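Researcher: For the annotation table, I need structure tokens for Replication-associated recombination protein A. Please keep the output clean. Sequence:
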Amino acid sequence: MQDELFTVNPDLEPPPERVTQPQTAPVPPGSPLAVRMRPRSLDEVVGQQHLLGEGAPLRRLVEGAAPASVLLYGPPGTGKTTLANLVSTATGRRFVALSALSAGVKEVRGVIEEARRRRQYNAENTVLFIDEVHRFSKTQQDALLGAVEDRTVLLVAATTENPSFSVVSPLLSRSLVLQLKPLTDDDVRLLIRRAMTDERGLDGELELTPEAEDHLVRLASGDARRALTALEAAADAASATEHKTIDLPIVESTVDKAAVRYDRDGDQHYDVISAFIKSIRGSDVDAALHYLARMIEAGEDPRFLARRLVVHASEDIGMADPTALQTAVAAAHAVQFIGMPEGRLALAQATIHLATAPKSNAVVTGIDAALADVRAGRLGTVPPHLRDGHYAGAAKLGNAQGYRYPHDVPEGVVAQQYPPDEVVGVDYYHPTQRGAERTLSERVPRLRRSVRGG
């Protein structure tokens, strides 16, 4: 990032006039293809049209008409750094970049003090670009608040994580949050073709077969940087063997794995596991296996996946298939015992079992209804005949007197009161007509009538 920044005038000369067509800094020789092909103006930006249309907030910011600080939120390779550079060049402001990976509170405050001095004595405004802002601690983020509030700096912060989880609320409220979307396949294809012919790129020296192009698009998974990096690697391999054509075997030999959109500490973690559970709940076994594969490939902790399966077995299947919990627990034990990658088989088996099992949420609704009554104070005292009678003096208190032992009768069920008076007659468990619970839907009402003497 440092080699792409604009230098600061040490003599504090007045800032240049605002321009609407940015002039970018020269790209150092030997820079990666993705850097060489970085858009020099809004006209070259691909994608994000929801933010770059006429009158849209990001276009107004890039053109220097909107003074608000912004948080650019989106996956890698969608143009966050590019747009930050365009903001700096188009607004005619001084541009300072910090990386949350290396900058501390001292560096942040130093930039703010310098920005305040330049604004006071030289009428020069500062754009502060912070990459990976989600890696800033709360203290580091708090250090920005005053400067953002009084516009000592125009903050342009980039993050791959949902700011709602990673950015402090005061900073969120002072900034415009703009979500960048992954590039479409057509967007990536356009970038690849531009790089093949542009003088900043391969300058038409090589050809790209349709099959190789399609493979590069799939590998990119909406990430422009990844697409251009893969193209550059394939081009280098072709040139090294004096090939004039980049074909599918060359691409496959240089790039072997597609990008997986998943961040174990970010919102993708929550989005993918949510989709996984909802696919199981919805009985879509194929979608469930897809999300499981994404998490496994991204390096998710298999114990976490196993725990979620155990929870789901009771939450959304329960007594409709009592063996689902057994399978999920067995998968958790198997993962702990054999580890990965073999553990993926047990996780997949449990996923298939749960996704194809009959569904019932009667377990979770039953316990939650009972908890709601307890929390509301519907407690009451334990009926005397159910109390413990195994200590001296218990009989004098009436404990365990009159208790009827169910095994003393042929049916194994006797009529007597079990719940406290406050919840007598309350039904918490409502079995469904699905799977094994269909039998329970007939048996439970009979048991209630026998126990309650109805």
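Researcher: And a one-line annotation?
Model: The chain has four domains: 2-179, 185-254, 267-356, 373-452.
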